[in-house]
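Course assignment 3, question 2. Fill in each field.
Student: A.L.
Task: Predict the tertiary structure for the chain below.
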Amino acid sequence: MLIRFIKVERNAALLLVAAGLLGLLSANLFGSESISKPVSELSHYLLCLFFFLVGLELKRELTSGMFMQKKVLVVPLLAAVFGAAVPALIYVLVTRGDSAAQSGWAIPMATDITFALAVFSFFALRFRKEARGFLLAFAIIDDILAIIVIAVFLGVPVLTGALVTGSAVLGLFVPVRFIEKLENLIHPLVAYIVLPLFAFTALSLPLDVGVLEVVGSVVGIGILLRVFGKVIGISFGAWLGVRVTGISSGLKLVDYVHISVLGGIGFTVSLLVTDLVFEKGSIQHSQAVVASLLAALVASVIATILFLSRKKLPTSV
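Answer field:
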């Protein structure tokens, strides 16, 4: 029963939400000082296990999964690239003229694998089986792109960049025969300790900004538009990939559009980037955190509405 629970994405996502809410509640009842700096720093370093797991998953897909035929990789690759670039470009355009705000351009780029798969799992029977593979593929590549951005473009401390990038690269170099055992060992730790701890510390901040203030700020608008940008970028990238390769995997453009809405759900990596580019306690940091949560909520609601409009497919599809 425990193993079955661990492998269900929606339960991991629910735990993330609970940990984040507990962090918010703790900070607003007892003050942000209730979370010691060493604990907060530890939660950031433990994310290396998450990025290592991302590297392992990518290696598995490249060697024995959906990417064994490298041509198939083109569709989710282009979807991920455009899905990351368009929201970042929109953010830059919205925040132009505000140098402090512009440093957050990478926040809208990444898709949260845990939450996206959790929402999708409720409606999986309304899609062809290839849809989950596409979602998982572009989300993994999305995170790899975010890792590169963190290491190369954000001007973070060398140690932080090296740990983040090195963790993912290390996963890519693990021999195939060890991957499954390592994933079985690490996945529960990441899903039930590492990510909830990070959510708890990342959201342990006083709510000194209102929703209307966030929605009216350039940081908030730039991040909230990630949902719109993700739909455009992912859908266009997938369409372009299909045109280039001639591989559709049985998915239609409308399928890609619907799935792309889940790209608007950013959490773990978005909050990490927020912590790296904005000083905690600054107005930009608070606006970015609240906007990321709002964007994830909006994307989840829109995705739910769209998915409910779809008919369940025969189980043989």
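Instructor remarks: The chain is about 75% helix and 0% strand. Residues 1-6 have pLDDT under 50 and may be disordered.
Grade: pending
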